[in-house]
Structures are given as structure tokens and as C-alpha cells.
Design brief:
Blueprint (H helix, E strand, L loop, with lengths): L2 H5 L23 H23 L5 H19 L14 H6 L12 H21 L4 E4 L2 E8 L7 E8 L2 E9 L3 H19 L5 H15 L6 E8 L4 E7 L4 E5 L2 E5 L17 E4 L5 E5 L1 H4 L10 H11 L5 H16 L8 E8 L2
Antiparallel strand pairs: 1-2, 2-11, 3-4, 4-5, 5-6, 6-9, 7-8, 7-10, 10-11
Helix pairs in contact: 2-3, 5-6, 6-7
Length: about 350
């Protein structure tokens, strides 16, 4: 797909999406997910059989085997992924984490609800621990970011990594919401931390990460992502895997750097081109996720890219540490108290004074 088609029109812009559910599967998880989970359940059954026959009979293993057999029966009957209480869909991210569950969140008992809340809080603490320092100053560059999940955990990805006197910066949005999205975010974090340590260019990092992502995730799980590298000379190399345009704040104008490839995970052999730009002192790059660009007010109107660009123009003369608060305040005035529908992440990078 040509780059121009990726982001030339806002309604058609590829973004991280949940797997579609076809009308025939009403109330059940998508076919791809079901097939994956069926194979996973069959693999677990084989492991349980080996464990039971290879040692003294264990009541716990026998109960797990019974639950796995029951789940496989539900797959065959076409009721897998449907809550046994309300007969609505069980949350797909929970099924991916535990294919044995039989009830949606609304119909958990008190003990199950407390266990889920505990797991979510632990996931949130782990995720917060993966975030970089809120203010970074490296190799003549400074960066500030803001990240807030819409729920307990986030599917947004943000990182700042110093390697060999350069600043690597990354921001993206992975498939879906909830625990499954946070797991994918952690996966990307580990992948890019490893790749950055090898001193690879943004282009090579993105292509390697794309192959890894494709081979280790389900079909339909994608990530839009910007991978950048800022050198002490002021040169910035950018690769954008289907993400929203990066805003370039410079004297007298706000430029837009469009996507240079399709989202990660869409095609295993995707190639990504590099956009290069030289930043003078006082110029900034603004990266964001759709929790900002698609933030809606009570009338359902979206904040949108044009408003983002206008706010960016108003922020050109501000010190870098004031840019992020200015964007957030403008967005909050626009939504006027409406509840956020997506995770919000904003990253601002500029030459240090």
C-alpha cells in the first residue's frame, strides 16, 4: 500500500484495531482467535496427559484436564467465548490470557472479581515500571512525555533510549485495549530495547521488529508506531509504521511528517523507508496517539489533526516543558469533561538550549 494511501485521508488511516467479529459468530470470539485458542487448548491437553501419566495422580492436574476438555467441547459446539450466565461475548483479551474462563467480567463472583482486580493492578504497576523518565536530556536533546491509560492498563507504547550518544525515541499504539493490549505493548518494549542496544538504524529496527511481531502474535494484531533516532548534529531519522503524522514545529509553520510504511504485524516482509530532517534549536517534534487526535466532545466531534496543528502553532514559542501541558489543556477544554475513550500518550522532542 503506497504511503500516500496510508494517511492521506483521516477516516481511512490504518490504526490498531481489534479483530473483527463476523455476524455468524454473534457473541463468540473471532474465528482466527478461536482457531488459535483451540490449538493452544489441544497442546495443553497433551501436556496434562503426559504429566498425569508420568507421575502419581494429582487431583489438581485432573481438574485442569477436565476444564480443558470442557473448553474444547464448547469450541466444537460453537459456544466457546460465550458467557454461561448472560450468553454475551466474553472479553477477547481475557480469553487470550486464559482460554478456560466461562464468564464475562459482569458475571464473575466476588472472589474471581478480586483476583482479576489484583492481576490488573499488578499489570499496571509492571507497565508503569517500563515507562522512561518523564523528562530526558540526552546528546543535546530533551524530551517530555505524558501517558495515561483509559482503563487500568494501556495499549500505548512510549520509550526513550540512549545508545552511543544518540536518542532513540518510540511511540505507538497496539491492537485493542485492556490486558491483551498491555501485553503487546510490553512485547514491543522488550523487542525495541534489545534492537536499540545493537545500534541499528530506525529502518532496520522497524523491519526486524515487524518480523518478530508477525511471528509471535495472532493475525489481526497490529501496532502503529513511530521509531526515531536523534543525533547530536541535529539530524533526525524517522520511520512511521502507519502512525498518525508527526508534527514538526518550526519557525513560522507546523509541518507534518507522514507514515513511511504500513502498521507492524500486517505483513511479515514489509519494508519501511526513512524520513530525515534536520532540527534547529527551538524546533520540536510532537508525537501522539489517537487518544488525543480522536478525543471527542459531548457532541461526538473529534479533536482532529487540524486542531492539533493549530495548538502546535500556538506552542512554538513556549519552553519545551510547557508544550505537553498546553496540548493536554487544549484537548481537555475541547472534550469538556467527556470520559476518555482511548489511552492518551503525547511525546515532545527538541534540541536542548
Amino acid at each position: 500500500m503506497p504511503t500516500a494511501e496510508i494517511q492521506s485521508h483521516e477516516p481511512d488511516r490504518p490504526r490498531a484495531q481489534s479483530l473483527p467479529i463476523s455476524p455468524r459468530e454473534e457473541g463468540a470470539v473471532a474465528t482466527t482467535e478461536t482457531q488459535y485458542l483451540q490449538r493452544e487448548l489441544e497442546r495443553r491437553r497433551e501436556v496434562l496427559h503426559s504429566a498425569i501419566h508420568g507421575s502419581a495422580r494429582d487431583a489438581g492436574l485432573a481438574e485442569l484436564l477436565r476444564q480443558v476438555d470442557s473448553a474444547l467441547e464448547r469450541v466444537q459446539e460453537g459456544t466457546f467465548g460465550i458467557c454461561e450466565s448472560c450468553h454475551e461475548s466474553i472479553e477477547a483479551d481475557r480469553l487470550l490470557a486464559d482460554p478456560l474462563i466461562r464468564f464475562c467480567v459482569d458475571h464473575l463472583n466476588s472472589e474471581e472479581r478480586r483476583a482479576l482486580e489484583s492481576d490488573l493492578e499488578l499489570a499496571a504497576r509492571i507497565q508503569r515500571g517500563l515507562l522512561p523518565p518523564a523528562a530526558v536530556r540526552v546528546a543535546g536533546w530533551e524530551a517530555r512525555y505524558y501517558s495515561k491509560p483509559a482503563g487500568v492498563v494501556s495499549g500505548d507504547y512510549c520509550d526513550l533510549i540512549e545508545t552511543d550518544g544518540v536518542l532513540n525515541f518510540l511511540l505507538g499504539d497496539v491492537t485493542g485495549k485492556g490486558v491483551a493490549a498491555s501485553m503487546l505493548m510490553s512485547h514491543l518494549h522488550a523487542t525495541f530495547r534489545t534492537l536499540a542496544s545493537q545500534g541499528l538504524s530506525p529502518e532496520r529496527m522497524t523491519e526486524a521488529a515487524n518480523r518478530i511481531f508477525c511471528e509471535s502474535t495472532l493475525a489481526g494484531q497490529y501496532a502503529t508506531l513511530v521509531v526515531g533516532r536523534a543525533a547530536a548534529s541535529g539530524e533526525v531519522e524517522l520511520v512511521s509504521a502507519g502512525h498518525w503524522p508527526v508534527l514538526h514545529l518550526r519557525d513560522g509553520s507546523v509541518g507534518r511528517i507522514e507514515a513511511t510504511g504500513v502498521p507492524l504485524g500486517m505483513f511479515c516482509n514489509s519494508r519501511f523507508s526513512t524520513h530525515r530532517v534536520d532540527l534547529n534549536r527551538g524546533e520540536r517534534l510532537v508525537l501522539y496517539t489517537d487518544g488525543i487526535s480522536e478525543a471527542s466532545n459531548a457532541a461526538g466531534e473529534e479533536f482532529g489533526l487540524d486542531r492539533l496543528a493549530r495548538v502546535a502553532e500556538e506552542c512554538r514559542a513556549l519552553p519545551l516543558e510547557a508544550v505537553t501541558p498546553a496540548f493536554l489543556q487544549s484537548m481537555q477544554r475541547f472534550v469538556s469533561g467527556a470520559a476518555p475513550k482511548d489511552d492518551v500518550t503525547l511525546l515532545v522532542i527538541g534540541r536542548a538550549g
